[in-house]
Fold this sequence. Notes:
The complex is a heterotrimer of chains A (327), B (282) and C (328). With 282 residues, chain B is an all-alpha fold. Chain B is built from twelve helices and no strands.
Amino acid sequence: MQDSENILELHNIVKIFRRGIIWGPKIVAVNNISFKMSKEPEILTIAGESGCGKTTLAKIILHIMEPTSGRILLNGQDMTKVKGKNRYKLIRLIQPVFQNPYETFNPLKKIDTYLYDTAKLVKEKYGEKSLEKIIDEGLNSVGLSWQEVKDKYPHEFSGGQLQRISLARSLILNPLLLVADEPISMLDVSLRVSILNLFKELKNNKRVSIIYITHDLSTAYYVSDKIAIMFRGSFVELGNVEDVLNYPLHPYTSLLRKSILKPVVNKKDEINEEINIKSTVDEFTEFIEKGCKFSLRCPNVMEICKKQDPPVFFINNREVKCWLYGK
Amino acid sequence: MWRLLRDLYRYNKRFKISVIIILCMFAYMLLSLISPYDPRTNYVVPINLPPSIQHPFGTTSKGQDIFWLLPFALRNSFIISLAVVIITRIIALFIGTIAGYRGGIIDNILMTVDDSFIILPILPILILLKLILGQISFQSLILILSLFGWAWDARLVRSIVLSLREREFSYTSFFSGRSILEIILKEYLPYIYPILLATGINNMIWSLGMETTISTLGLTSIDTPTIGTMVFWALQHQAFVSGIWWWLIFPIIFVVLLFLSLYYISVTISEAVDPRLKVIGG
Amino acid sequence: MNNGILIKIDNIKAYYKTQSFETVKNVKAVDGITMDIRENEIIGIAGESGSGKSTLGRVIYGYIESPLFLIDGKISYFLNNEEVNLSNESYELQKMINLRWKLISYIPQSSMNVLNPTRKIYKILEDIIESHNMDKNTYKDKFFGSLESFGLNPDIVNQYSYQLSGGMRQRIVIALATIFDPKVIIADEPTSALDVVTQWNLILLFKKIHRETKNSFVFITHDMSIMANLADRVAIMYGGKLLEIGMTRDIFENPQHPYTKFLINSIPQIGDKSEKSAIPGFAPDLVSPPPGCRFLPRCPYAKKICEEKEPSYIEVEKDHKVSCFLLQ
Lengths: 327, 282, 328
């Protein structure tokens, strides 16, 4: 395996779904996305609302779904066809963390079966150590122990604990990249921050990069280094998280930013806006829109936006996909 | 699974009674091993005797002791339906899993085949086969019933596999290093076999009923004693009209009891597997 | 009316009973709650999983059916001329039914899914109007008016619910729940399945309805940011108990209970990258809760007395009550 400078490279990834069996409108769920993640461990957030395509993109990165076109390189290797033996290479490079901790494990089986299966794959590297010891060390790094976890079924744990066990399992193989799809949205509010703190710790101490997929911009701000705002299949803005969220360039990012409620009590009448009628456009109509998909709602919409999908423009350290920044 | 069955036995009266009845039936079937009469022989006892101490269920017009004939009849009927159940479970499991997991063209082909088998009308085809083959033997009957019995359940298995395939734990298993076959065996089977068990009992009821119907019509090998052939012979000899009610009533009572117990067992298991005992939290 | 109090909740206990063969389990979802709902206010009930807040919402609405049972306590409704009581002894069902939807309505959790997908919206509207014996024309017009002020095209009534987005469905449900101008509307997590932008618009909507009709909202959610921007008063629930209740500003600027403090401080905000800490421990066990204070297993300030007795309420400042031994 050759060492490359990037652990993940996406080149022109496109995924098209057809509505209807034989013919029907095409939905471009992922619209020509390219980006790179370098060897330097970082946490990248892919943020967007439901229906923006982020889960589809996550599945493609994890190789659970095949893209319609485009290439993915993991550590310099093209692993598009993952079958049989290739699977072992893949899972040592990239691992998932899912949204629903109770679905991550089979409710009818004990949790330790998954831990054993994963640990068996690294046994040779650790020579003398028993499987249980390997698992125990993995669990310790997320604040749990083998004693607490063995011989139990998923429903015997809380959501927060299960999510930690899921993380521990993912880490046993020492992957380069974790792809976490809404990992905390199903957890209690009071426990969410602990998982986010764990992510930061993993990045700093274990040198793992994480792709954090969410719709919650506040947690994205808290935990990540970079952020990509996704809208109807494209990255409309990509850059450092402080820059993007404090000084948004794309109108969609501004809209999201403005809609976030702060846990601070304002004087009541400050929030006295009129309800935005434009916000009742539905997903499907926007997806098949020609030109920029945000044009139906954009407060800064121009003629060209309705006709042509904007390309990506580079401004300082950021990428913005918006005609406002053309030329 | 076993804990569930044990709990059901302990706490559900219906289930308990049904299980006891089935066990008694098995015991009765075992009597066939020590039967003093060969069931294929005729005129070994006086004919048309009503139930008495020497012949607890009476005798037939062909000179057979019903009490010693019934175990054979029950046993054979049961074996036929059991064989059909096992074969159809295997076929349904295979086809349902492959169709559900692979999807795409393979799924379409398999389901088209499946649909074709569902709509085949069994009785006309059997009559046709009898005309072609002459008599339908024990083994042929098992094969034919199996051919008709897998289609519905294969669809059930397929829909279970389809839904399981998208659940996150399938992926967790994949990322823990398991191959597709291992995923199917280890993750999906625990979901599939309770359904196969419940529908298996339904299938048994169905094939028992089919066998009885077919044999009553005389389409099978009428020398082999089954419930259906007993009824066939009784009808041939005009048993009811002649007042030899015991020839018909006893096989019918037994087969009805067998049906009812199997039915109750099936329904109770299905109800218990239904996850309604969850609490709405908050 | 009872000096501005619309609903008086007095030491209500409501448990879920489940029976699996021989074992009977009692889930003590609401275990002794006393509070009132006042006129012209938006009161928020905050809590996480296992707090009992959704059950409390149901109980306030009077939707108490097996497996939920009212064990103890009384709810008194002062919504029309007579006082209607709900307790173990007097479940005045007929009177409750008269109140429902006309004087008090309920928007359940995940309510975008409560619209019957096989009936067009206008049919659902007609069903509701007819089943309450009200005049079709008046209320149809009112409904269309609501839809318009919510930013929806009234033509939407000719569609089926599955053809609409989550945000649209939610607005329709809210329009249906407010059609008879009830005095109290109970909403259980009405925005949690929706995206940030739609959520923002719905919060504006609730404020608008409240401003125009002066009715009371009981808003149940785990999201403290919504509370800060919408509620007049906030009640913090945990493990079936009420830990703290007070005016929103007091709760956010002067939180007293350790749990409240944790809740407010653990929320990440944009512009703030400082380290936050989560609350140690896990959600409370409602089946066999510990004796004494429910929050004890997770409280960093636990004292001996917290294990033995449940703290009573102390009024810290005007209209701000806390149940915690730290203040006694």
